[in-house]
Task: inverse folding
């Protein structure tokens, strides 16, 4: 469970016919998408008013909920809008338009999203919605009349916002396809504004191969669609050229990567490792047990690589085989244990993070006890505990529900167990190399991570930011370690270029070098309401 010092981005565990222009050509051809300065100078000394209806002169506030995949989508949308002249603001009250990027995993996240829409409307703000909620349920009453950007249409955010500014409602919800094959989504080399200029989040695929009975994300992200290895290598290379020192790979299931395009995750990772400068690090995203099982040998080698965090997020959800069957998780608890035991043996010190759902329909006391026993066995240092929420339209919503007070009690009992052990106490006294990338929520420390992606708080000295430093661990908390810099050790700079400034748009040079393709009228199956 995240602490007050945790990183701001949480990781939960996120129609083009063959004759039509490719997404790449479409990006180049569409003037409203090509990053450029709006010709404000043509207006001489005339001041633009905030209520001007000239698209590209307004201030936009963006809010993103959910996983790192959704955060990556948000970064891409912000980058394209800024490159087209819009001003991205941190102040919702001064914004002319709110762009709300939603998450459909849990009811509370959707409730926050719905409340934000109402708040924006009460303040007479224009609203554009994006993310998994409108993609999965575009006809919800509270979305009526709002412009929607589908999860595979984020490369067209400027068009949608342009129209919303003028008072029009546009809905782009179609999937990107090439010759009938579904694509991973919008191009990876679009402009973006990184939330943290030192961290690049790369979505390696969208969707998954499972059909979990509780999952609403599947309704939005669909079946597995992977990006080609070369595109991911190129995106990684570009990120390092822009001063990034840490890469996060994300998707709904990284372990399934490549199964739709004839490759696999280890093949991709070995290629990406070649691009990582010394001292920079790669973090793997969430993987479900079934697809990682066949790659355990290679995954152990990769997690032992000095430039890859020895960290893996493998959601178990329940330790009861009968509950896993009702969830349609496609593995049994022995499969999960095999993954954990193998990696613990072959990757000494590896961090395994996991997720557990408390009170899934049909879960008995015996089922829940099996989950308790699993946590007692492994003492997971990072455990995301979720009380079950039935999501509308999912098979689990139609099953017989566990009474609310029992769900609450089980969630509380599991939380108490999690807080009863201290996973990092044995680390006190160790000397470690850590990569400093963020600031703690209380702004008192810089946040670094060691080889095992354990959070290490270090003194907030400007010369440490973005550096690999050596520290002596002198204190351990439930969710963090504290490190004292080793005096005789000098900070090492992994970045091969100066990082972009906060708010600076990434990828502009690459896009501006593209040649303009011919403009072809869009004939895909977008809906306009």
Result:
């Amino acid at each position: 469970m995240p602490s007050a010092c945790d990183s701001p981005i949480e990781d939960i565990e996120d129609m083009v016919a063959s004759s039509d222009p490719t997404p790449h050509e479409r990006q180049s051809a569409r003037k409203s998408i090509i990053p450029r300065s709006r010709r404000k100078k043509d207006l001489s000394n005339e001041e633009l008013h905030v209520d001007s209806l000239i698209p590209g002169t307004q201030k936009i506030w963006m809010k993103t909920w959910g996983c790192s995949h959704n955060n990556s989508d948000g970064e891409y949308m912000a980058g394209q809008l800024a490159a087209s002249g819009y001003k991205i603001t941190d102040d919702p009250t001064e914004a002319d338009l709110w762009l709300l990027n939603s998450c459909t995993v849990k009811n509370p996240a959707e409730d926050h999203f719905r409340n934000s829409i109402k708040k924006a409307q009460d303040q007479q703000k224009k609203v554009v919605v994006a993310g998994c909620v409108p993609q999965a349920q575009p006809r919800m009453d509270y979305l009526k009349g709002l412009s929607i950007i589908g999860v595979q249409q984020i490369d067209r955010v400027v068009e949608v916002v342009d129209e919303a500014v003028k008072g029009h409602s546009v809905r782009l919800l179609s999937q990107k396809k090439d010759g009938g094959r579904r694509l991973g989504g919008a191009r990876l080399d679009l402009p973006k504004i990184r939330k943290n200029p030192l961290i690049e989040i790369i979505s390696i695929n969208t969707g998954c191969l499972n059909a979990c009975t509780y999952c609403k994300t599947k309704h939005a992200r669909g079946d597995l669609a992977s990006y080609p290895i070369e595109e991911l290598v190129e995106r990684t290379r570009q990120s390092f050229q822009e001063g990034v020192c840490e890469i996060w790979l994300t998707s709904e299931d990284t372990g399934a990567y490549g199964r739709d395009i004839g490759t696999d995750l280890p093949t991709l990772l070995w290629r990406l490792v070649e691009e990582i400068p010394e001292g920079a690090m790669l973090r793997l995203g969430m993987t479900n047990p079934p697809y990682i099982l066949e790659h355990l040998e290679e995954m152990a080698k990769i997690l032992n690589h000095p430039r890859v965090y020895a960290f893996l997020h493998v959601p178990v959800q329940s330790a009861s085989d009968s509950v896993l069957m009702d969830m349609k998780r496609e593995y049994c608890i022995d499969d999960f244990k095999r993954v954990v035991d193998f990696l613990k043996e072959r990757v000494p010190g590896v961090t395994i993070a996991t997720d557990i759902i408390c009170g899934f329909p049909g879960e008995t006391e015996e089922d829940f006890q099996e989950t308790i026993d699993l946590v007692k066995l492994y003492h997971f240092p990072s455990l995301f505990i979720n009380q079950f929420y039935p999501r509308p339209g999912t098979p689990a919503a139609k099953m017989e529900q566990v009474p609310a007070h029992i769900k609450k009690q089980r969630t509380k009992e599991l939380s108490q167990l999690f807080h009863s052990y201290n996973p990092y106490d044995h680390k006190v006294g160790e000397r470690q190399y850590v990569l400093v990338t963020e600031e703690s929520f209380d702004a008192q420390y810089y946040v670094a991570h060691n080889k095992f992606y354990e959070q290490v708080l270090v003194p907030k000295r400007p010369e440490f930011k973005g550096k690999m430093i050596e520290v002596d661990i002198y204190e351990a908390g439930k969710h963090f370690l504290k490190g004292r810099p080793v005096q005789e050790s000098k900070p090492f700079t992994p970045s091969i270029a100066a990082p972009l400034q906060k708010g600076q748009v990434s990828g502009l040079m690459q896009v501006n070098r593209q040649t303009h393709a011919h403009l072809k009228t869009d004939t895909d199956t977008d809906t306009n309401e």
